[in-house]
Amino acid sequence: MQCLAKDRDALLAFYDFPAEHWGHIRTTNPIESTFASVRLRTDRMRNCGSRETILTMVFKRLQSAQQGWKRIKGFRKLELVVNNVQFRNGEPINDQSDRLAA
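Predicted structure:
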């Protein structure tokens, strides 16, 4: 219980982003699925090429995998996140008076 209390802010940090982004923030599946095909190929190619050959293969596998990637839900709100707009419970906070000027 102390561990949860200590890490509460980190565990709930995704609420400080737009609600549409929560699913993307809470999962590592895009990273895992992207590298699954690379891992499969590199396991099969052990000791069958130079460093340059392996790097080229990894690049081509990632380039191929990106064709199946989906767009981030709420991608239009990325501009707000980049511009340091604060969110609370997935909604932008209208009172930005305490925000630092860029």
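Summary: Helices lie at 2-6, 8-11, 22-26, 29-44, 51-65, 78-82.
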